[in-house]
Each structure stands twice: as C-alpha cells, then as structure tokens.
Design a protein that fits this description.
The chain has about 180 residues and is of the alpha+beta class. Helix content is about 20%, strand content about 35%. The strands form 2 sheets. The protein has a 5-stranded antiparallel sheet, with no helix packed on it. The protein has a 4-stranded antiparallel sheet with strand order 1-2-6-5.
Length: about 180
C-alpha cells in the first residue's frame, strides 16, 4: 500500500506541476502580447498662464574719475566715484593689469547716502596702495571695475570700468 500512495501522490504532483506550467505559459503569453508602454494611465493636463521676469542686479554708474599729479607732474592718486542702490557691503572695486586682478579693500572706499535711493561710493587710490595691489603701476594701464553684489548670494552685476594710464617713471596720468 505504501507504493500506491507514493504513485498516487507522485501522479498528483505531476498533475499539479502540469497545471502550474500550463498556467504560467498561458499567463506569460498574455503578458507578452500586451503593447509596451512607459506609463499607462490618463491624466488631464492643466495649462497655467502668466508671466515672470528674472531679477538682474543693476550695474553701478561711475560719475567721475580724477587723476591727481604733484607739482612736477608725477602721478599721486586717482579718485573714482560711483553711485549704486547698494550700501558699502554690496559693492566691489577690482583692479586688473594684465593677468593680475586685485580687490580694493573696503576700508579704502567711503560711502555716503542714500540720496534719492542711491549711495555714493568714493575710492581714493594713492600710488602706494596701487603698487601694493598690482605691483607695477608706472608705465602701464590699469582697469578699475566696480560691481554691485547682491548680499547673501553669488549674484553680481555687470561691471562699470575706467582705464587708469600712468606714464613711464610715473609722469602724468589719465583716467578714461
């Protein structure tokens, strides 16, 4: 009798395996026949309308650039004046000569205002300061660029620039 039970349980297992295999084959065929989609659902699209504008940090305005010479016509200093809607911590003055760029320390820039919504910034750059920042002042041209900075961000305005030219041996100087 134990053999019969083994044979009948063996036959039952085979029958179960056959049914399971057939159902997998039929199920697999059904899945394979479905078209492929990225996502199969319906969604109603809503179109919003409106406009927006991007904020641009306004550029400063240079109002004057004056060169001071001593009695012998030797360069002494340059004074750069500009206006900006930003206070002292929102402006930067850089000097560029060739591949060298230096930032003028904030202590060398004085600020007044605001008047009519604008601050006036003045930088008096004497020969000693200029030489310490860019090394070779005599017989060269230096670009002075002011930018407005949006404090707390990395946003910076377009620059406003003037060219300081000092003659050989420091004789004369122009700011254009």
């Amino acid at each position: 009798m134990s053999r019969r039970r083994t044979r009948s349980s063996s036959a039952g297992r085979r029958l179960l395996a056959g049914i399971l295999g057939l159902s997998l084959a039929v199920g697999g065929w059904g899945i394979a026949s479905l078209p492929q989609t990225d996502a199969y659902f319906t969604d109603i699209e809503y179109t919003a309308s409106g406009t927006f504008t991007a904020f641009v940090v306004p550029a400063p305005t240079i109002t004057s650039c004056t060169v001071a010479l001593n009695g012998l016509g030797i360069f002494q200093s340059v004074t750069l004046v500009w206006t900006s809607p930003y206070p002292a911590n929102g402006v930067r003055l850089t000097l560029t000569q060739g591949a060298t760029t230096a930032v003028v320390p904030a202590a060398n820039i004085t600020t007044t205002g605001p008047t009519g919504g604008l601050y006036t910034h003045t930088a008096v750059l004497n020969q000693g300061l200029l030489v310490s920042l860019i090394a070779n002042l005599l017989g060269s041209t230096t670009t002075m660029t002011v930018n407005n900075l949006l404090v707390g961000t990395s946003w910076i305005s377009a620059g406003a620039s003037r060219q300081l030219a000092v003659g050989a041996l420091g004789i004369g100087g122009t700011c254009t």
